[in-house]
Design brief:
This protein is an alpha/beta fold. It has a single domain, classed as Rossmann fold (3-Layer(aba) Sandwich). It is 47% helix and 17% strand. The protein contains 6 helices and 5 strands, in the order H-E-H-E-H-E-H-E-H-E-H. A 5-stranded parallel beta sheet has the order 2-1-3-4-5, with helices on both faces. The protein is globular, with a radius of gyration of 14 Å. The mean pLDDT is 89.
């Protein structure tokens, strides 16, 4: 991983919404994000909570990391709802399920920015976030 001093300032100011129903997994992902220098992390356990947060938060969210399988509203449903509302927030689905090509195609059609397979390493997570944010900045 890159040392904190070498990270671009935008990483330190990045606001991330982490949506994961499993407490242990959420804690691990939060720890990985913090080790990357990302400190502005809001956590939700389900899609409905995430949607409520996004609709009521005064501060802009820069990135959503979301589990595919969530209670109440799945990650894909959350993504579809956000895109229908015109949101362009980068959305990374983190999944432990295979899903198959049909599910991946549906997510891509719905506007997912990227996928990360569980379990993921800190390096993989950081590389993916960097790629996604570079694309966002270039757009």
């Amino acid at each position: 991983m890159i040392k904190t001093k070498e990270r671009p300032i935008e990483f330190m100011n990045l606001r991330v919404l982490l949506v994961e129903d499993n407490d242990d997994t959420r804690q691990i992902l939060r720890h990985m994000l913090e080790n990357m220098g990302i400190m502005n992390i809001h956590e939700e356990r389900d899609g409905l909570g995430a949607l409520t947060f996004l609709n009521t938060s005064i501060k802009k969210t820069d990135l959503i990391l979301c589990d595919w399988s969530l209670p109440g509203m799945e990650g894909l449903s959350l993504l579809q709802r956000l895109r229908e509302e015109g949101s362009t927030i980068p959305f990374i689905i983190i999944t432990g399920r295979g899903g198959g090509l049909g599910s991946i195609a549906e997510a891509r059609h719905s506007g997912v920015t990227s996928f990360i397979q569980k379990p993921c390493s800190p390096v993989r997570l950081e590389v993916e976030i960097r790629l996604v944010m570079q694309k966002q900045m270039a757009a």
